[in-house]
Amino acid sequence: QVQLVESGGGLVQPGGSLKLSCAASGTIFEIMAMAWYRQAPGKEREWVATVSSGGSTDYVDTVKGRFTISRESGKNTVWLQMNSLKREDTGVYYCQAGGKWGKGTQVTVSS
């Protein structure tokens, strides 16, 4: 069964950057699409970005141009580079693949 472990979260000021990673095991990573979601306190989880097995990407409008999701062939890791962070980006960020979820990593954007 797939296991997903996120890391890289933390506290940053508005305008700062963070890079999240998601390590995956138990699946054929090369043929699986992977995605990032986030959830703010008291709100529902929302989709943020997806990278396909072929490397194509898609983003929610609110992060387009600021976030980059990426993966490499033969690597069981997907990244989310987050630049120009805003307060509204605050939340727990989750990696998703094959219908499974990681436990999340906290991202807090605050002065």
Number of strands: 11
Strand content: over 45%
Order of helices and strands: EEEEEEEEEEE
How many helices in DSSP terms?
0
Low-confidence stretches: none
Give the % helix: under 10%
- What gyration radius follows from the Cα positions, in whole Å? 13 Å
Distance between the termini: 40 Å
- Give the biggest sheet: 7 strands, mixed
Q: Assign the structural class, choosing from mainly alpha, mainly beta, alpha/beta, alpha+beta, or little secondary structure.
A: mainly beta
Task: Report the principal-axis shape.
Answer: globular
- On the 0 to 100 scale, the average pLDDT is 92
How would you describe this structure to a colleague?
The chain is mostly beta strands. It contains no helices and 11 strands. The termini are far apart. Strands 2, 4, 5, 6, 9, 10 and 11 form a 7-stranded mixed sheet that branches. It is 0% helix and 50% strand.
Output the keywords:
111 residues
How would you summarize what this structure contains?
The chain is an all-beta fold. Helix content is 0%, strand content 50%.
What layout of secondary structure does this protein have?
Layout: E1 3-7, E2 10-12, E3 18-25, E4 34-39, E5 46-51, E6 57-59, E7 67-71, E8 77-82, E9 91-97, E10 100-101, E11 105-109
Parallel strand pairs: 2-11
Antiparallel strand pairs: 1-3, 3-8, 4-5, 4-9, 5-6, 7-8, 9-10, 9-11
